[in-house]
Each structure stands twice: as C-alpha cells, then as structure tokens.
Amino acid sequence: MNSTELIKTAETAARLGAKCLLDWVDKFQVSEKGRADLVTDADFASQTAIVEHISQQFPSHHMLGEEGLAHQEGESDYRWVIDPLDGTSNYVHGFPYYCVSIGLEFKGELILGVVYDPNADEMFSAFREQGAKLNGKPITPSQIPSLDQAMVVASLPVGTSAQDIAVKRFLRVLPEAQTVQRTGSAALNLCYVSAGRIDGYWSSNLKPWDMAAGVLICRESGGTVTSIEDGSYSIEIPSILATNGTNIHNELQTLLAEPLF
C-alpha cells in the first residue's frame, strides 16, 4: 500500500483528534479509570474523530485504542494502534505536554508512526525504511556520548508508591545522569529522543498505544529501542528503553536491569 497515502491519512486523523482536544479545553468532565488514572470526554471525542477518518479511508483495517477500542472484524493485515490523548493528566492540569499518537502495523510489524503535538503544532512522522521527520524535515538523535552528560526521562506508574520498582529505578539513575525528568507523555518522550531534545527514555508500565508510533519514529531517526531487560522489544511488553544509540543505552540498561534488592 502506498506510504504517502497512509501517512496522509494518519496525519489528517491526528489533526482531527487534536482539534477535538483543543475544542474540549476547559469544557471536559474527568473520571478515574483507576487511582490517578484519568480519562476525559476529550479522550473519547478525539478517538471517535480519528477512527471515523481512518475507517472512511480503510474500512477493512483493524484498530486498537486506549479507550476501549478493539476493532478486529474480518481479516486484515493492517492494525492501527491509537492513543487519542497521550498525557491525559497533563491535559487535565493545563500543562501543554500531550499529543495524539497513531501507529500502524502490517502483519504484526510497525510500518508507520505519527505523533502530533497540537500546542507546538509539531507533527512527528515516520514510515519504515524512510527515516523520521518533524514537520516534514528529517530528524536525528543527539550524539551525547555518556550518561553523566545526558538528559533522560522516565515514565512512572500512576498512583505509584515509594516502594514501586519504577521509583527505585528512577532514584538509581538520578545521581548518574546530568538531568532526570518525568514529563507525562511516552509518545512525546520517544519523539524527543528522535529529535535530539533528550538523550534517553525508559518505562516499565506502558501499553501498546502509548508507544507504537513513537517506537517507529525513534528507530527510523537512528535511535535505539529495546526492552529494559535485554535487546528484544515488542509493543505488547510494557518495558522499553529508548536512547540516542550511544553508550548511554548500555549505561542505562545496566543501571535499570540490575536487581533492586
């Protein structure tokens, strides 16, 4: 299938979803899926807009999305993996670090990723073996060579405790890196690694829709993506380590994978 057509569909869908998010600012109702795990009317409105547009273009394709979306009727080699609002807590609090994330798999392999930040009007995109772009211009990761010079970001579980393994990993890295942050959007974190804005990112609690698009964008930019524990990777596994591909990756993997006893 034509890559240009697929990317155009994904980018248009992402913009339609993002428009819903902006239209719902200060109007939405908030509920909890779990402790501190928020969902808003905007999430559902965005997902509806995205699904409607993609379905108009490719009615036979399967879909998987955060807000109860699991369309798998009929046979198809294609599956869209959609997060209509990555960074819901940021969105609820008016912190402008959230996005729409849309990935596409073909026969189980990621082939397309689009992440749109409506506040910055930044469209990150990639198609397999065609490189990664930001607003149409190629992007590459940083060349920072070591963790002590690096800015890295972690995702921590919502409603976590001080005893959580993710918190212990965060604290283990904290004295070793130049800067360690927690920002609240996995998809944007992966894109920021791709564009050289941060040097590494990790999480042990993601869902497929959090990372499908960002993983492809990062890999196509020249970044390295594995699990925290080893060199393998799948969006069905919640563990991810993404870096600029320098020795930072080995340094982080060593720190994060060591037993925490």
From TrEMBL:
GO biological process, one term: phosphatidylinositol phosphate biosynthetic process
Cofactors (names): Mg(2+)
Residues the record lists as binding Mg(2+): E66, D83, L85, D86, D210
Catalytic activity: a myo-inositol phosphate + H2O = myo-inositol + phosphate
EC number, UniProt record: 3.1.3.25
Family statement: Belongs to the inositol monophosphatase superfamily.
Protein name in the entry: Inositol-1-monophosphatase
Protein species of origin: Gimesia aquarii
